[in-house]
Amino acid sequence: MSRKPPPSGGMRREGSPFTGLGPVFMKEFADHLSSARMMVLMLFVIAFGALPVGLSLQELRTITESDPFLFLRIFTSSPQRVPFSFTASLSLVIPLLAIGLGFDAVNSEFNRRTLSRVLSQPIYRDALLLGKFLGGLATLAVALVALWLIVLGAGLLLLGLPPRGVEVARGVGFLVVAIAYGGVWLAVAMLFSVIFRSTATSALCSLGVWLFFAILWPLVVPVMVLAVTPADVAMGMGRLDETLAMIEAQSMLERLSPNTLFGEAVVGLLNPETRTLGPIIPSQMRGAIMGAPLPFDQSLVLIWPQVTGLIAGMIVVFAAAYVVFQREEVRA
Amino acid sequence: MGDNVIEVRGLLKLYGATRAVDAIDLDIRRGEIFGLLGPNGAGKTTTILMLLGLTEVSGGTVDVLGFDPVRQPLEVKRRVGYLPDAVGFYDHLTARENLRYTARLLAIPRRDAEKRISDAMESVQLADVLDKRVSTFSRGMRQRLGIAEIVMKKAEVAILDEPTSGLDPHATFELLEMIRGLKKAGVAVLISSHLLDRVQSVCDRVALFNHGKIALMGSVVELANQVLGAGHPILVEASGVDIAGALRGVEGVQTVVAEGEGGWRVVADRDVRAAVAQRIVSSGGSLTRLADLQPSLEEVYTRYFEEARHVA
Fold it and tell me: How many residue pairs bridge chain A and chain B with CB atoms within 8 Å of each other?
């Protein structure tokens, strides 16, 4: 094996790693917003969002009993005619949007032969990659905020009553979670765009990871957990602590998927009645009023681990992309 | 560092066990056009990337305008313009928008930037397509846009990697004119190329690369003397006379070799044109051509690599 020279050991490079971050960010943001691809992705998002929202609004208009969180039901109720709610639909569409924005972030620069020219300007690779990521994230945020406002507006028009402050606060919380969720997938797509020179390969890999977590992982986890659980516990005949341990193990594994984290955070935020995201035993419910909503700050406490999990995942994947990008040769 | 803009000492680049660049020394002087010549894969591009701090240096030192590209790449890249091999621009943007992006990366104030962009485009004769999308540009126009970027940057050193490859003769001629223009503006220019005859016409000095080493370095005439031997080569064409026989007796003539149809290549230790003409006429021949042969880089190159192969 050849000995790799120490990466400028002891000699620090000079100048801020963020030199040039602003221009890269502005260019990426402007490029995304004006691109035909963004139009297509937005149409896709609106189509997938409009269907459940429109149908559940029709149903919600007929509800006569008073519901203090009527507005939030627009997001979460799954109408009878389509089997998924607005949030469930978003948990599928946001990754697609993020992958669409990020899968060719770096390799397209390489293929267009612009990478070496841009890197010969006074800028570190750090700023280029981070600027691209933030540009994509800002685009994602704009798209989601627009969608969110459309839903809010439709709700105002069709329900004929304004949302309460706490509902808006929970809605904004949902928006933040959705952007963080999109950020994870954007980072995944950018990681593949750094690894693979071919944009088709990187798109395919990103979509593969997305499909894996959206479809396969929820099916695989119970099988894996059951395989290592004693038979009597698996049959529901074990001691309480053993059964709890099995359920805990299963949800820990499920939470490795960003989809699970997003789903749990959304449930906690938009269904104020949610008291826990894990198993609950009757003794813990003593004194609780069934169906009573949690205050907003308590809901935030409940979903905090999920939100930090999403953000941490985003940072870890981005860091991986960064490391790979730093080691890459710029020449064709 | 005196009058040198680039000083390279013992520069080394290892890819695994291969020495892509093998301990080279190189000086580029202020305001000269320097050619890095050699076959593909000889280490030219790798050397350039190390000068710009775009790839890791395995050993040796580099000094560009007083800065170390390993530790101070931003300072180097602020002052050095780079035109990569087959340069790319953002096709969906216009020429102006592409240069504006570069200007922002260079932190040129907005008011100055517009003026500098239009001046630069003027200088490469692209002013009329300033607001056209780059996707409509030919290869030659893209290369000129790359030169415009360097002009706009007001670089002190321009590094051009294979600037003429893939260009038609007219576009090549125009591009070489622009490179001369850079030199006139006081920019030191470093050109890498494997197209010798084109580059020969603009280079003040050249370095021949071979297997990661600099085989020869100097002006074209110096290299010719070194490789082809000292002497004045001339081309003689005449009829009605045994040229070889007639010229062997001329004082100073060293070799007479047939070259092409009826032509003879004569090498002497001084300018023997007058004596040769006299001898041919006095021998009853009619002289049809008598030309002073400039040493061609191509010849130097071919001869050098032939010899290198023989040695190997």
Answer: 99
